Structure formats: structure tokens, C-alpha cells
Amino acid sequence: MNREFFREVIMARTKAELLAECVRVGVKADSGCSKDTLMDKLRDHYLESDSYPIQIDLMLARDAKDFLNYDLDKPWLSNSMFSMFWGRADEWVMEEKLDGCRFRCHITSSGLRFDSRRRSDVDYAYSEKTSNFPHLSGIKIPELEGTVLDGEIIMPFQSIDSGSVKTQGTLGSTIVVVNSGPDVACAIQDKYGYCEYRVFDVIMWKGKRVDHLVWSDRFALLWDLLECLGGDDYIKTVRSYACTPEAYESVIESGLEGVMFKLRSGKYECGKRSPSWYKLKKFVTFDGFITGYVPGDGGNAGKVGSLCISAYDQGGKLFEFASVSNMTDYQREKLSNPDGSLDVGMYYQVVEVMGQEITKNSRIRHARMLRTRSDKSHNQCKVLVEPGNLTQL
């Protein structure tokens, strides 16, 4: 389950409900406030102790998909990508994008504390998960007390069995540990291995805000952090790369989820989707077979508009995971009957498709057909379907 879907599930309250709650408890607010602002107001009203970690909004990244040309075999080689990133390698740095759960790390006198982007359903404070990671929480760095880091918790073991859930990927394993109670989370880690914290930015340094510093200056602080840690096995920084398409392809080939583009002169903008950060996830390829079509409209009226691509799931049932429409006029004419329906000979034809990412419905986003696969039968096209995830079997 990807992070976007996870966030939507737990942030299910409507703005109207939040406004009504503000009225009920006497918090001043109006309909012009955003949902996050309303939750902040309620949180500040409910919190009566200083036992909570400092409440700081994280900076969010924009999506580089708008710079991609999906008509290319390699969409990341579009002219817009060169204009924005590849041609400005001295202005941008590229970091690995991790497949974990986002957490702030608070360095306190009693050890490390971790809170997530998830808010409490009771007081709207960011949910603390410190007890799930005792191997991390026990670390003390007195010389950096008051520092707040931005990073991700990673469970580096793809296949774990919690007793109720079996996982097939790093993100799934991480979510199981994060969402379990402390006893279960600790038992899982004792059995399989411990979560890591991969830090990639600094929000506060020794009690002072540093979000006004540019990225390159904040990144330099992370080296001071590593020196103070003295080579701890479970707290690491993320890897950085030259901002080139060759480096991006190398990162993806290594199996990572994607990359982050970070503006060297960019500041940390709390609570904003900043133009200083862009994410580019890996492109995925799957083999499936044609199981239907969507009628065309506009200039394609009376022809096949797009093809429905499916595979067999783990239970042997058909699962449609993509819809592709990147056909030439000639191809569209050849596979369309005079009445606009799909030629019966195209059904169960195996094709290879590529897309940018897996949606929360386990479909391939921005899917396009790369080629036909005459060397493969439809019975060989099998996928493991999980919420927000899809794996070729």
C-alpha cells in the first residue's frame, strides 16, 4: 500500500465535521480554513502538556510527471526534463527515493522520539511511534539535543509474517511494523531484523529552526550528525547522485523506488508542496493480455479508443491492471471492426506495458504499450495483487 493511499485512509474526516467540532469545543475557525489548519487549531486546543514532540509540518514534494513525455520509450528523456533537471545538474542534486514511511526524529535528553504524518483521531497531534523502535529510541546524542530530523523508517526485509499479514515488499513490511502495537512491532523486529531510519533533511538544529538555510547547508549538518553517531548501524543518510539521466537509470536498475530532485539553493518550506523538491518514481513494466476495449470518441469515434490489459491474480481470476491508448492511426484501424468494436483476434494477445507507478487500486498509472509478446501465452501472465501494489509473478 503506497503512502498516498495510506494517508487518505487515515485522514478521512470531512471539513464540515472539523468545523462542527471547532464550534462544539469553542475553537475560533471559519470555512476559509483548510482541513490541516482546522486540525492544527483543534490540536492546539486539546494539547495540555509539553510531553508531545514538537509539532512541525513536513515539506512535501511535487511530482515530476508533468515534465515527462509518455510518447517516448524513455519518458524521462523528454525535452522538458532536460530543461528542468538534466540540463541544470549544477543547480539540482538527485537522491534515492525510499520505499518506507515518513517520520520526524526528535533528539531529546531521554533519547530519540519518532512521530509520523498521521494524526491522532483524538487530539489531532502527530502520532508518536517511539515505542515501536526501542533500538532507535535508546540512542542518546546529548550534544545535538533539540534537533529535529526528517527521514523515513525502513524495514529492510521484504517478506515477513506477522501472524495476520504476510508481506511481499519493503513498504508492506514497514507498514506492518509501524501500524502494529509496540509488543508486536518489537517481536517482528526481534525475529527478522530491525528497522532503519534514513535521514535526508534537518528542520531544527540544537533547538533552533534551520528551515531558512538552503539545502546544501542543511545537508552539511547531516555529516555532523553522522560524526556524533559514530557509525550507528540503524541511522543512515540517503545516497546522492549526479543529476543525469544515466544516474537515474542506474538507480532504477538497482531496484530502488525512484529519485528525488532537490534544488541546492532551496529552503525547507514546512507544510508546503515545494518547487524545491520533485519526485520521480520508477517506471514499471508488466506483461498482460488484451481482454477488452473502450470505444473511441472525438477523432477516434467509431474505432477502438483504448485496450484493457489484464492478467491472472493469485487466485486465478482475471484482474485488469491497465488501459492503453498509445496506438497509431494505422494500428487503430487494423484492430477495429467496421462497427468500432475490437477485432476478436486481438483478445488474449499478450503485450508488454509500461507505466509510472501503481495506483491505490493496484492499476498502472500512465500505462502505454511497448510491444506484443508472441513468445508468451496469456496463461503465463500472472500478478500478485495487493492494496496499492502489483507484482509480476
Radius of gyration using CA atoms only:
24 Å
Low-confidence stretches: 1-12
Q: CATH-wise, what's the superfamily of the largest domain?
A: DNA ligase/mRNA capping enzyme
> What is the averaged pLDDT score?
89
- Looking at the overall shape, the CATH architecture of the largest domain is 2-Layer Sandwich
Shape: globular
Whole-number count of domains:
3
Which properties best describe this structure?
393 residues, alpha+beta, D-amino Acid Aminotransferase, Chain A, domain 1, OB fold (Dihydrolipoamide Acetyltransferase, E2P), 3 domains, seven-stranded mixed beta sheet, five-stranded mixed beta sheet, 10 helices, 31% strand, globular, disordered N terminus
Protein model, in words:
- This protein is α+β, with helices and mostly antiparallel strands.
- The protein folds into three domains: 1-46, no CATH class; 51-281, DNA ligase/mRNA capping enzyme (D-amino Acid Aminotransferase, Chain A, domain 1, 2-Layer Sandwich); 284-392, OB fold (Dihydrolipoamide Acetyltransferase, E2P).
- 24% of the residues lie in helices and 31% in strands.
- The strands form five sheets. Strands 3, 4, 5, 6, 7, 8 and 9 form a seven-stranded mixed beta sheet that branches. The protein has a five-stranded mixed beta sheet with strand order 1-12-11-2-10.
- Helix 2 runs parallel beside helix 3 and helix 6 packs antiparallel against helix 7.
- The longest helix is centred in the middle third of the chain and has 15 residues, at 215-229.
- It is globular, with a radius of gyration of 24 Å.
- The relative contact order is 0.13.
- Residues 1-12 have low confidence and may be disordered.
